[in-house]
Amino acid sequence: MTTGFTIWFTGLSGAGKSTISALVERELGERDHKVELLDGDVVRTHLSKGLGFSKEDRDTNIRRIGWVCEVLTRNDVVAIAAAISPYRAIRDELRANIGRFVEVYVECSIEHLAERDVKGLYKKALAGEIANFTGVSDPYEPPLSPEVTCYSDGRETPEQSAAKVIAKLEELGYVERRVLVAAAGAVDSVYSEEEEDEVTERLRDLGYL
Amino acid sequence: MRLFDKLRGGKQRKKRIVVIGIDGVPFTYVQQLFRAGELPNFRAIVDEGALMQMDTTMPNVSSVAWSSFMTGQNPGKHNIYGFVDRQPDSLKTFIPTSRNMRSPALWELLSTAGKRVFAMNVPVTYPSRQVNGIVVGCFLSPNVEKAAPNAEVAQALKRLNYCVDADPWRARQDKDSFLPHLDEVFERRIEAMRYFWRQEPWDFFMAHIMETDRLHHFFWEEMEQQHARYAPAFLDFYKRLDHVLGEVRSWLDEDTTLVILSDHGFCSIKQEVFINTWLHDAGYLQYAKAQPEGLQDMAASSVAYSLDPGRIFLNVKGREPEGRVAPGEEYERIRREIAEAATRMVDPATGEPMVEQVYLREDLYHGPYAQAGADLVLAMRDGYDPKGPLGKPNLTFKGPSLVGMHTTPDALLYIRGMRQTSRRPYITDVAPTILELLDLPAPADMDGRSLLNDQVS
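Output (structure tokens, whole complex):
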């Protein structure tokens, strides 16, 4: 029985998949899991180099990433994929193949994304300069029952989104629950010893100690 | 093309928020000054909205209260429990800073939503965390350079002669010379506020004034007793504050909402109360040496210890380094025993009870960091100020320097354009209210609720 599993981030371009998945990767790494992050933009520069954005090419791309996740998952590695992956049927196919599969939908309205336009792509897509752009000139089929839904329209921070994902992994038993205690101030110190003494003195003079 | 046009036309007119924090200003004291015909600017501001009495956190110290304000959460979620805290496994004490705060501040949420934000001097914002804008660290910053988020802001603050905080040592040495010093620190803070306000059309702008709290700690009793010199000086300070509020009011346009709030009230100190002395006298705390200096000098036979203000921790097996109390049944039994004994704590001079109520952790804190909270928290009666030092021979003390202490049910909240509410506001309600004013959703894990729906018609 493997300890690996796959976390699949799906959502429109610029929604925050890369940001949140990187935070999740870091947290799992700190908890001593073996983790591999397969970011869609990066994968398209090597594993899926040469593939375009037609339906056929997108499906091939996602199936390739899915296959790598499957191999990692059965070898005790946590595979994290972050790709638009707009077609529901293909995502469900991966879920069926991999089994230990956690789908994270990073939700953000197209209006919000176009206003933010972090990569400048929406402007071009809306002007017709990019064809087959998901959400503008190509479809996106959101998951019907993802394990986690994250919102990147301001109602939660990326850190909160990552925490939601971790909490769900703990709940599902993929990751051990961590007992949280007050973070140690002195371990990762924001004060030199001198500075701490000075601030402590001020607090004492104010009667706060 | 059509979609792009829709996006352009659909953009709403921006709404902006200005928040002024006036630390420790009691609702009842402001009402008292209004009745005496004072604070005309504040009065005019209040006529344009709703001024409410607000409840604050337990403990009612600024680091906890403002943290709860900025996160909209109880300490069980944001993890700031006091000005000082201890690492349970070593009993080493430390000063909680923004590194320990586990939740985003209101302006960080606004920042993620693309708003331009500014926050200056709000506890607990040292070290300043990154935002779409500027956060100037609070009084816990060791110096002005470190309070600034970058070199440019540091230079500006230095040019403005900005002070992180008034020096309380001066007040302990000589109250007379502390007053002009406090005035100067206040003036420089206001100058900095003006400077940053002018920099750009911030969507969210918050300035926190700490000087009121400092004034109250050292002069509250003198004000109440109408001291010949200090009472007029106290009122003069408030007049200066009123003037500043009038200036802020002149900055506002129709689209800007003004919020003014404090984090707790104030009353005179009758006695400082050393909770560790009470624990020692009651047999719960023993010292490992004759003159104990800190928690490290607590003897292993001890069952409980205290941290400022009024927080009691049991010496628990598996939690504290030389824990004595077994978790589970023994913990619950001893905790309740101490809580019950604490309610019988009396002022040795008058025989009056000093403790209003004793809270259990679970009464106050819930969330992922609730276990970091104290096992018991004492709510003291007005006049009895709970303190943390160990080894004090007498239970109580009254000195000439520290004369004012915090109260819990007397903070104030003002929101422009609002009406009075059917329920009493709590300090965690302010952030969700501000989010709603800006048409943004409040995170589901905020404990407070927007007050806008509770306005009476």
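The mean pLDDT of chain A is 91.
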